[in-house]
Each structure stands twice: as structure tokens, then as C-alpha cells.
Amino acid sequence: MDDPVKEQTKKLGLWPLFYLVLFSVAMAYLESAVVVYLRALYYPQGFSFPLIMMEKRIALVEIGRELTTLVMLVAVAYFAGKAFYERFALFCIMFGIWDIFYYVWLKVLLDWPQSLFTWDILFLIPVPWIGPVLSPVVVATSLIVGGGLILRKLHSGGIFVPNLLEWAIALGGALLILLSYTSDLNAGLDFSMPRPYRWELLAVGEVSAFYALARSLIRTRRTGEQ
After folding, report:
1. How is the chain split into domains, by residue range?
2. CB of 131 within 8 A of CB of 180?
């Protein structure tokens, strides 16, 4: 396994970064194209809540598609990066670009969503994630910014090695963000009209994650310091 402290990273050139962005944007189109087909089948009059239940076979295919999407992002980040945290940063950036452009392409192809506060079903693993479009856009933007800060630190000759406390704070923040989408189990499991979104959980989760990131960046300000 790579040693995230000792292994050095080399600054990615402009063209490699361009192709990573291009891959993320193209992958977002592929994802949105699948949604176009699904909505033509299940929502010919337009997408809205309450959601229509898919057949079990189609639902399993959708879950598999979501898993393989993550696998593809991980694989590309792995081959593009040299060390663990560089790969982690690239994954965050690519995920964020993919998620934002997924909605950009849906707007182009379907003229949807009507606004950033339009509700959507975001993910199916391990239970459905439901929330207004603005919320995943906020998370995606945070991933791009956070990944960019880590990448800048590494490529300037510094190191980025969060300690256990910083990981715990960041993971706690991620859990709060997850709960903001899944805490209403009634809406999440029976696909009924969702209740008001838990913006306060998203806010606290975002603040926690960025606090952990800032704490680690400041603590490891000098090369070799842990």
C-alpha cells in the first residue's frame, strides 16, 4: 500500500487535468442520458413526487449502475494519481464535476430541474437519498474546492495527512450530510412526498468537513510536519 507521507507526488500538467475534467463531464452526460430513458418510460408526463416504483429487476440494474459509476471514478483517479491522497483529491474533484454536470445535462436535455429547489432522488444505496437539487450541488462544489486545496498542497511540495481526530470530524460531517437525505425514512422507503429538507444537517456537516480539512492543512503547513 502507498505511504501517504513518504510518497511524493508530481504536479499534473494542464492537459491531464483537462482530460480528467472532460471525462467527468462526458460521464455526467452518460448518466443523464440513462435518466432521460427512464423518465420516458416511467414519467411520460414529467417527473414528480410521489415516485413510481420500479420493477425489482430494473431497480437492481440501477443500483448496479450507481456502483459501477463510483468504480469508474475511483479507477480513473487511481491511474491519474501517484499517491493515496492525490488520488483521493482527484476523486473528489471528478465526483463534484460529474455531479454538477449531471444536472447541467438534464437541464439541456429535459429542461429539468425547474429550479435549484426542485426535489430529486439522488442515490439508491443503501436506501434512497432524496433532497432538493441545490443540496447535492452544494456538496459537489465543496468536493471540488476541498479536492483542489489538497491537490494544491501536495503539488506545492507539502504533505496532507489527516490524523484520526480530523478523519473522525470529517466522517461525522459526511454522516450528517447523509442523514439530511435519509433521515425521513417514511419518505425514503415508500417514495411518498418528502417532508422539508434538513438543511441544518447539511450545514453542520459541511462546516465539520471543512473544519477538519482546514485543521489538517494548517497542521501540516510545513513539509514533513505531521
Report:
1. 14-219
2. yes
Query: For the chain, how big is the Rg over CA atoms in Å?
Result: 19
In whole angstroms, what is the distance from residue 217 CA to residue 115 CA?
A: 35
The Cα–Cα gap between 98 and 141 comes to 11
Q: What is the pLDDT of residues 5-60, one digit of tens each?
A: 444 455 666 678 899 999 999 999 999 999 999 999 888 888 877 777 788 898 89
Can the peptide bond before residue 50 be classed as cis, meaning omega within 30 degrees of 0?
yes
218 and 166 Cβ atoms separated by less than 8 Å: no
Tell me the per-residue pLDDT of 93-109, one tens digit each, with 9 for 90 and over: 999 999 999 999 999 99
What would the pLDDT profile of 52-71 be if each residue is shown by its tens digit? 778 889 889 989 999 999 99
Inter-residue contact 205 to 176 (CB < 8 Å): yes
Angle between helices 134-155 and 84-110 (to 10 degrees): 150
Task: Give the list of residues 6+ apart from residue 99 with CB closer than 8 angstroms, or none.
Answer: 28, 136, 137, 139, 140, 143
Report the predicted TM-score, pTM, of the whole model to 2 decimal places: 0.87
Q: Half-sphere exposure of 45 toward its Cβ, with a 13 Å CA cutoff? A: 4
Q: What burial class does residue 170 get, using C-beta atoms within 10 Å of its C-beta: 0-12 exposed, 13-18 middle, 19+ buried?
A: buried
Which amino acid is located at 192 in the chain?
S
**Side-chain-side CA neighbours of residue 78 (13 Å):** 8
Q: Which residues contact 75 (CB under 8 A, 6 or more apart)?
A: none
